[in-house]
């Protein structure tokens, strides 16, 4: 991909904050970018539940949460609010162009048959999370990175779809 194409994509406005864009905002604050698989994914629901518990701490330490998803923006606000999330920026990316720019790829068969994945399914179900209607690419892996001053300063590579990163540890706050 050319740098011009990447810059054009990064210059697009946030879905829910149209007067700001990812590129320029990354020079104001550290952007904790969370790439979701799809809204029907029980792991994404668990990840958002975990995020809601620490979002205020992250924001007090200078992080802005940016949620990237494949769904239409008309359903995303209600979905995110159902987890108690506030003051987040979002990017609706149904064609997964942002996923491609940041190299958040689709998963392999090995990642979706990872031995720990079955335990994570059971564990997430015990916490009340369940799969629902798929509204995106089912093989899409989640992503997590910190963008600051136009550069990726840290990126987490998921071993499987059910991996649950600790947001505070990843951000260096724990």
Biggest sheet statistics? 5 strands, mixed
Tell me the β content. 15-25%
Q: Structural class, judged by helices and strands?
A: alpha/beta
Low-confidence stretches: none
H/E element order: HHEHEHEHHHEEH
Any guess at the CATH architecture?
A: 3-Layer(aba) Sandwich
Our count of helices gives 8
Fourth-level CATH superfamily: Glutaredoxin
Mean pLDDT: 83
Give the helix level as a range of percent.
25-40%
> Regarding CATH, which class?
Alpha Beta
Shape: globular
Task: Provide the domain count.
Answer: 1
Task: Give an account of the 3D structure.
The protein is α/β, with parallel strands linked by helices and 174 residues long. The chain has a single domain (3-170), classed as Glutaredoxin (3-Layer(aba) Sandwich). It contains eight helices and five strands, in the order ααβαβαβαααββα. It has a five-stranded mixed sheet, covered by helices on one side. Helix 4 links the parallel strand 2 (63-69) and strand 3. The protein is globular, with a radius of gyration of 15 Å. The mean pLDDT is 83.
Give a quick summary of the entry.
This protein is of the alpha/beta class and 174 residues long. The protein has helices at 3-10, 22-25, 42-60, 73-81, 97-101, 109-112, 115-126, 167-170, and strands spanning 30-35, 63-69, 89-92, 143-148, 151-156. 37% of the residues lie in helices and 17% in strands.
